[in-house]
Amino acid sequence: MAMFAAKHNLVIIEMFQGGSHQDLIRQLLTLAPDSTLLTLTDRKWHWRARCGPLQLLPQLQTISRPVETLFVTSVGSLPEVVALCPHLQGARKVLYFHENQLVYPTRCEKDRDFQYGYNQIMSALMADLVLFNSSYNLESFVGNIDAFLNKMPDYKPKGTSQMIKGKSHVLHFPIEFPLKRLERTVPEILHIVWPHRWEHDKNPDDFFSSLKFLISTGDKFKVSVLGKTYQDVPEVFEEFKSAHPDFIDQWGPLDSRQEYLNHLGTCDVIVSTAVHEFYGVAMLEGFWAGCLPICPNRLSYPEIYPKECLYNTPGQLTKQLRQFCKNPGLARRKWEKVVEKIDLKLYSWDGLQESYREVLGVA
């Protein structure tokens, strides 16, 4: 789908229009409603990363005059996009990283597809401004560029990371938090929520292992497993659902964002076991709703949450959950202390939209 404006002051390109990518574009359009928007659907990410610019070509050909500013995310190759559309060559190019491929977890390093990371490096070299949704995202990308390029057999480039670092900045993804939280009461039984994609990089094995241990020791709780599902769902989901239906409050995504936020408001702790996370929108949404976040002490989490929300081992996660099972009201009391330490305005659309307005070059 594409929307075309009479002027090309700003062109926005998203080659994977879904989830948080789609949410960001929707918010940008409130600041620049006359922008030219070019998008591809959020299907077959690997094909979008490889072939997105060519798939976008019919839409690129509608750009008939020079462009002042181009905003594009890091899914596909920016140099290929510009090569296919001469009117983009003189534009100020802003590249936004929701994630980076240099540290994407793989079961074996030799299985890592070099092309994905290479495309992102080349895109960053071409961009005038490179933005990341978290410090972890920026540092893990820039800090791994040189080692990544050293995999080349010869003619290994030098100084690439410094060329990119100088134009790289953190601009958090803006979350639209509702104006009011639901009223909360002291729970009789702990309600645990896991709101992530049902994929291996979110490490569901550790999460369900903790729950199974709680069940084996007779601890009382209920669990909601939310998040988006895909065609290849790890087996551990069905195994837990089949074996322990009495512990399940909600299984699978809810029908609307409002239902989702309302449901988060009934939960007490929100858990991440991720091995791949560059920001964590769902965790912040749950925290806003009143859930105490319990996160691994890695990835983007330490820059957002204080140490009392972090664990170092799966055993520590299980120990914390057991503590809350025995005293469900404790999670609420800890949340009330943690909420004083985190300024959610730093991650909200209300707090960030002026920075995005400046990035886009709109009045």
Describe, in plain words, how this protein is organized in 3D.
The chain has 363 residues and is of the alpha/beta class. It has 16 helices and 13 strands. The strands form two sheets. The protein has a seven-stranded mixed sheet. A six-stranded parallel sheet has the order 10-9-8-11-12-13. α5 links the parallel β5 and β6. α9 crosses α14 and α14 packs across α15. The radius of gyration is 22 Å and the shape is globular.
Would you summarize the structure shown here?
This protein has 363 residues and is α/β, with parallel strands linked by helices.
Question: What keywords describe this structure?
Answer:
363 residues, 7-stranded mixed sheet, 40% helix, 6-stranded parallel sheet, disordered N terminus, alpha/beta, 13 strands
Number of strands: 13
| Percent range for β-strand residues | 15-25%
- Regarding quaternary structure, what we see is single chain
What global shape is seen? globular
Largest sheet: 7 strands, mixed
Measured distance between first and last alpha carbons? 27 Å
Strand order across the biggest sheet? Answer: 1-3-2-4-5-6-7
Q: Which whole number gives the mean pLDDT? A: 94
Helix content: 40-55%
Structural class comes to alpha/beta
Poorly predicted runs: 1-7
Summarize the SSE layout with pairings.
Blueprint: E1 2-3, E2 10-17, H1 19-31, E3 36-41, H2 45-55, H3 57-60, E4 69-73, H4 78-84, E5 92-97, H5 114-126, E6 129-132, H6 135-142, H7 145-149, H8 160-165, E7 168-170, E8 190-194, H9 204-216, E9 221-225, H10 235-243, E10 248-251, H11 257-264, E11 269-271, H12 281-289, E12 292-296, H13 301-304, E13 310-311, H14 314-326, H15 328-338, H16 349-360
Parallel strand pairs: 2-3, 2-4, 4-5, 5-6, 6-7, 8-9, 8-11, 9-10, 11-12, 12-13
Antiparallel strand pairs: 1-3
